[in-house]
Amino acid sequence: MSQPQFDIPSCDTAFSRFDTVIEWLMIALLAFMPLAFGAVSAWSEQVVIILTGAMAICFALKLAIRKDAHLIWTWAYVPVALFLILAVVQLLPLPVSLIKILSPETAATKTTLLGNLPNAADILNKMTLSFYPQATRHNLRLILAIAIVFVITVNIYRRDEQITRLLSAIAIIGGGLALLALLQNLIGNGKIYWIFPTYNKGYSGTFVNHSHYGQFMNLSMGAALGFLLVKLHKEFGNKKVALPEIVTRLGETDFRMAWFCIGTIILGAATVFISLTRGGMVSMLIAVGFTVVILAFKRGLEGRSWIITAMALGSFICVLHIGFDAVYERLATLSEFDRAEGGRWEIVKDISVAWMRFPLFGAGLGSHDVVYPMFDRSTFSSLAGHAENEYAQMAEETGAIGLGLMLVLIAIVWRNYIKNVRHIGHSIHFAAFGLGFGLLAIMIHSFSDFGQHLPANACLTAVSCGLLVGMGRRIARRTGKGTGAAADSATDRKNSPGQLCRLLRFVVAICVVAIWIWAITGANNARCAESYWKEVLHNEESLAEKNWLGSNEEYADILSHAMKAAEYQPDNARYRHWLNIYRWRSISRVTDPDTGQLIVTPETLEFTRRIVDDLHQTRVLCPTFGATYCVAGQLAYFILNEPKGADHIRTGYKLAPCDATSCFVAGLLDVREGNIDASVEKFHRAAELNGRLFRDVVDVYVFQAKRPDLAVSMAQDNISWLSQVARILSEDTEYHDLTTQARAEVVRLLKDKCREPDVRAGALASLAGVYAREENYEAATDYYRQALVLDYGNTGWRLALARTLARMDKVPEAIHEARICLRLRPQMKAATKLIEHLSTLPKQRRENVELRIEN
């Protein structure tokens, strides 16, 4: 069946070369991002900026050089351009009088927070709408790259073969990633590529977060489905397709790519389920249902919906074979979905309060993690780095204007989707069904995830939107119906070679190059800073293991790397903040050997003042970064004896109630001021955020506040904490009763845990240790044996069992357990020493022991 062609006529060789270069750059970009863990690191973001900038320059040069080339107009450019302008406006230092008109709460908040600085008048004379310009610039670079991908897709992918090449490339990339995810699930070692460890077990494929993998795979499956439908329509037209005929034709050589797309869809859907991303599973199922209904009710396409059903069945069989039980259990927790990650709905409600404070222009693109803590009313003890809801975070960061522009863009894209599925006269428009599937899935998923913050997902979304808009415009050109089509045609005439000045085109090309230079320079600085900061974190880990009592050379190393990072990104508040903390650590190593207190010298005070002054200057970079207020206040109040430091500590806690240090220092201030009851909540939150601080909290309550009862009550039913309290209290006979109480509570809690059917080996071993200290050796050996049944190879517990048996004079059994330790760990000196000791016991004693055992 011959198909009418509506493609733009081919231009000459020079025009085609530009297209070819851009197509290769696009495929390289789409392949690189998922392979680089979603492009979340600074180095991979720089590669994204380079590739998208190269595409933009090629396209601008094409417009400048080719007289017959023109920009394809679509109203979708308007919200995209306005959103970029909004981000730029957020970065501009505007007069405070204008800020008070545009965003009164922004002016009021910054004035309140920075008004106590010595140079406050100069600082507050001008200010930005963004509370953290560094983060706004970072996000602006990425959004600019995403916008370039969208514009390039609309303008370059205008021919059938170009669109099918792009769809097939996305399908191949997605299929390869799905196969990798499946292999890692079956024979993986808990590491991405079997090499790179992750901070949690929720990774899938090359994505650290399984939800992000779900979004990428749903978009990839959409492209694969689009290609498959295009191929089937080219071969069979609008007639109903029987399964035998499909199978027969699929065996032909030119159907190999169709087979690959089928495999991508089946493996992709299966791995989305196996990844256990609830949002990804639910959104995929809804999108499948929507697409099946559209295909079923579209006249002439009734024979296509069963194809999706067949592939869904194939995915189900794959899941059934690999991990159906885990998938079922995960889906069964959907009723608890809101409580995940601290309660997504609670976060959204808190963000609504922030949005009402900055309703029109928002708090600044990328500023969520430094603004949201001010409004966090949840009891969850950790900070949500993202809102877990793209729409809510968009409203918080860019206000009603930014959210409205995004919704307008979504409406334009879906209008083009409807246009494509209603006016199908050409095979290529069948790709709209698959692209719509992917977009609907990620739109639904975005209500509970932040996957569009990853360049890999956002750029793939931009490609899907660009294809729908580009294909929709072709229909408008063909039919000539509607104001949109008329506007497009009028714009094309306006952009014709005879009317558009070539000089203006060159000016535009120069502007594109200038913007790209700005973006790549910023991305390169971020990459260099991040590389130095990785060295800082490595050195910090080493120093923390030594309780920060490192050598001068170690501190010179960490300070050198931190300063280099701050030099590359001088507007990064976090780098400057931690640089000053390391400076303080380096001068606070000299302590009194008897009391452990810091020895304060005049030089120490002078360096401390410099650190405090630099921390106050860091506040200007991000006025809502509470940790900086806290550290500056702590040094000013406790070291420099400046009363105003207390106000900074309180401000820091108010701005960052989810920062462990801010909570601890605020609690310490309460104790110092005699308001001990108020300190309990702050100390408890600090210990929840950082368990290592619990020991410091106990020291404060026991030795400074003389309130050990608060330490006991704060431990509540935490066995580890109660054990720590008991050990500390046992050092002072004055607290004998409390020590006994704490230990009794530990035993009670352990006994309760050991009665549970799914008791862990650690709880059994802990209770065994308690009984051993109480010299109840029979009970101790019983619980040690139960623990070793669950964890046979734990040589520490087995050695403890051997020692317990030795105390009971069960020498042969003790030697037997010690020898098992040596089989498991041949170099275990403690086991060898125990065997040697038991073997040297008097012969008469050993014989008596053996006789008692036999009887």
Report what the structure shows:
The protein has 855 residues and is mainly α. Helices cover 72% and strands 1% of the residues. A two-stranded antiparallel sheet has the order 1-2. A hairpin with a 3-residue loop joins strand 3 (191-192) and strand 4. The longest helix is centred in the middle third of the chain and has 44 residues, at 502-545. The protein is globular. The termini are far apart. The model is unreliable at 1-14, 337-342, 482-500 and 844-855 (pLDDT under 50).
Name the descriptors.
two-stranded antiparallel ribbon, disordered N terminus, 855 residues, single chain
Write the layout of secondary structure elements.
Layout: H1 13-35, H2 42-65, H3 77-91, E1 94-95, H4 96-102, H5 104-114, H6 120-123, E2 126-127, H7 133-156, H8 160-187, E3 191-192, E4 196-197, H9 210-236, H10 243-250, H11 256-274, H12 278-297, H13 305-322, H14 324-331, H15 344-357, H16 368-371, H17 390-422, H18 431-445, H19 455-479, H20 482-494, H21 502-545, H22 552-568, H23 573-587, H24 602-621, H25 626-639, H26 645-655, H27 660-672, H28 676-689, H29 694-704, H30 708-715, H31 719-729, H32 736-754, H33 761-773, H34 777-790, H35 795-807, H36 811-824, H37 829-839, H38 843-854
